[in-house]
Design brief:
There is one protein chain. This protein has 236 residues and is an alpha+beta fold. The N and C termini lie far apart (158 Å). It is built from six helices and eleven strands. 31% of the residues lie in helices and 30% in strands. The protein is elongated, with a radius of gyration of 45 Å. The protein has a domain at 98-229: 3-layer Sandwich (Rieske Iron-sulfur Protein).
Length: 236
């Protein structure tokens, strides 16, 4: 017996649509993009993995760069130059023994600049040692003094113009010698009264007894030689 195709379609339509229910459109298959959008936890996990991998890569690159820079030739030389430009003495200069007089205390070639200085030690006849200082004065004059305060226990110091202004309240166009205990200032370009006549180191501030004790120096064969220290005789 042959079935009526029109009748079959009519029955199927009636069976798929219950009475009183609105007609629904067929659901489309989910696309890959929709599936990803509907899984936020999976996206967050993948994002964290990428961030972690990027951080590890950055650390590895930084370590490789640091290791290359630390082992690069000439790096220590640059650090040494930077240290010297900042006024820091080299290790060799720190370990160099201080000259002891009587005897050579400096090379004239190292003292060409005005107001350059060289510290040394003067050994007295009784064996005592006192700190001393060689100064290159303007017009190619060398002068050496004992840094021991005459008739006192304080040690004198070489004071540049900034130190004179800040510590001694004195404005000056060039460095001078200062006594930090009495705040006396001595000008090595001028002569003051000493026990045996006039001596460099006139008192321009303060009330010291006399100029610093002088140490005789002369230049021979490019060497500056300290030979004799002035006797500390008190002015009457």
């Amino acid at each position: 017996m042959l079935k009526d195709p029109n009748k079959t379609k009519s029955m199927n339509a009636m069976a798929s649509k219950p009475p009183g229910m609105p007609e629904r459109s067929a659901r489309k298959p989910e696309s890959p993009k929709q599936v990803v959008a509907e899984n936020p936890l999976e996206n967050r996990r993948r994002s964290h993995l990428w961030i972690g991998a990027a951080a590890v890569l950055a650390i590895v690159i930084a370590l490789v760069w640091w290791a290359h820079g630390a082992s690069a030739p000439g790096n220590g030389l640059l650090e040494l130059k930077a240290s010297r430009s900042a006024g820091q003495p080299s290790q060799a200069a720190q370990n160099a023994p201080m000259p002891i007089a009587p005897g050579p205390i400096a090379n004239a070639a190292d003292m060409k600049q005005d107001w350059s200085t060289k510290a040394f030690v003067y050994k007295e006849s009784n064996g005592d040692k006192s700190p001393a200082l060689l100064v290159h004065l303007p017009k190619d004059a060398y002068w050496a003094i004992s840094l021991r305060e005459p008739f006192g226990n304080c040690q004198l110091e070489f004071a540049n113009v900034d130190k004179l202004r800040s510590d001694y309240n004195l404005s000056a166009p060039y460095p001078m010698i200062g006594d930090p205990c009495t705040h006396t200032v001595f000008d090595l370009t001028q002569y003051g009264e000493g026990p045996n006549g006039m001596v460099r180191g006139a008192i321009v501030a303060g009330a010291a007894v006399r100029p610093p004790l002088a140490i005789e120096v002369n230049v021979k064969d490019g060497k500056i030689i300290a030979s004799h220290e002035e006797e500390a005789v008190k002015v009457q």
